[in-house]
């Protein structure tokens, strides 16, 4: 099994630059589209990073955000929207009018839609990695499925096995947020949902996942 490869990085870079162009093209967009494009412009970990930022604000552990927390979180992203637009966004996500948003539902609506076949192959990849079946991928899981012996930095002595495996996990965590070395299924799916948005062909996406995870 190998870490996301050069092709994937190219797709991610293309998606990010395209999103940035769309964000700044001056065309009218609804606030949720703007937020999605902002996440895309930050690469495959954009939505994932936003999810982690919101979870860090969840002081009471309720996995829900009230309007005040949501406004603060959106402001922190640097998105160019008015307070009225943020409130409109909140109302869209707060479907039952309860005054709070479930974070999992929020991220589901924010990430691009995918055909079930793509979700299935992402789930299969996660299940292969999650060797102890605890719903989280850790270094210990990776040691059972990912051999670093052929990795050039391992061979040169530049990096240890743990350092290389930690780097692999950080692919999914991005440069921001909580780098805890643990990847949940939701984070794994959100990462590949963004990659998926840059791939039109279902067969190519399937092939990419099977090659990356040797399925």
Keywords:
single chain; 215 residues; 12 helices; disordered N terminus; EF_hand_dom; EF-hand domain-containing protein; calcium ion binding; EF-hand-dom_pair; metal-binding
What would you say this structure looks like, in words?
- This is EF-hand domain-containing protein.
- Pfam families: EF-hand_7.
- Keywords: Calcium, Metal-binding, Repeat.
- The protein has 215 residues and is mostly helical.
- The protein is 61% helix and 5% strand.
- It has helices at residues 6-23, 31-41, 46-56, 67-77, 83-93, 103-110, 116-129, 139-145, 152-155, 161-173, 185-196, 202-213; strands at 64-66, 100-102, 136-137, 183-184.
- Strands 1-2 form a two-stranded antiparallel ribbon. Strands 3-4 form a two-stranded antiparallel ribbon.
- The protein is globular.
- The termini are close together.
- 28% of the residues are buried.
Task: Describe the structure in brief.
The protein has helices spanning 6-23, 31-41, 46-56, 67-77, 83-93, 103-110, 116-129, 139-145, 152-155, 161-173, 185-196, 202-213, and strands spanning 64-66, 100-102, 136-137, 183-184. It has 215 residues and is mainly alpha-helical. Keywords: Calcium, Metal-binding, Repeat.
What's the layout of helices and strands?
Blueprint: H1 6-23, H2 31-41, H3 46-56, E1 64-66, H4 67-77, H5 83-93, E2 100-102, H6 103-110, H7 116-129, E3 136-137, H8 139-145, H9 152-155, H10 161-173, E4 183-184, H11 185-196, H12 202-213
Distance between the termini: 9 Å
Number of DSSP helical runs: 12
- Mean pLDDT across residues: 80
* Rg, nearest Å: 18 Å
Secondary-structure element sequence? HHHEHHEHHEHHHEHH
Low-confidence stretches: 1-6
Which secondary-structure class do the elements indicate? mainly alpha
Count of DSSP E strands? 4
InterPro entries: Ca-bind, EF-hand-dom_pair, EF_Hand_1_Ca_BS, EF_hand_dom
Domain EF-hand: 45-80, 81-116, 117-152
Pfam families: EF-hand_7 (PF13499)
Keywords: Calcium, Metal-binding, Repeat
């Amino acid at each position: 099994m190998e870490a996301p490869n050069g092709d994937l990085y190219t797709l991610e870079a293309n998606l990010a630059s395209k999103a940035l162009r769309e964000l700044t093209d001056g065309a009218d967009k609804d606030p949720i589209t703007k937020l999605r494009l902002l996440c895309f412009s930050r690469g495959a970990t954009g939505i994932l990073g936003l999810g982690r930022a919101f979870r860090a604000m969840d002081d009471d552990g309720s996995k829900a955000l009230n309007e005040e927390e949501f406004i603060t979180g959106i402001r922190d992203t640097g998105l160019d929207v008015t307070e009225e637009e943020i409130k409109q966004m909140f109302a869209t996500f707060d479907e039952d009018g309860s005054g709070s948003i479930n974070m999992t539902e929020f991220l589901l609506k924010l990430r691009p839609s995918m055909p079930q076949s793509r979700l299935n192959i992402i789930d299969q990849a996660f299940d292969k990695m999650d060797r102890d079946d605890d719903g989280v991928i850790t270094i210990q899981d990776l040691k059972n499925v990912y051999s670093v012996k052929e990795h050039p930095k391992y061979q040169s002595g530049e990096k240890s096995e743990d350092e290389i495996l930690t780097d692999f996990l950080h692919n999914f965590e991005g440069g921001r947020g909580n780098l805890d070395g643990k990847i949940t299924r939701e984070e794994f799916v959100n990462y590949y949902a963004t990659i998926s948005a840059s791939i039109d062909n279902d067969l190519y996406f399937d092939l990419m996942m099977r090659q990356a995870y040797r399925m």
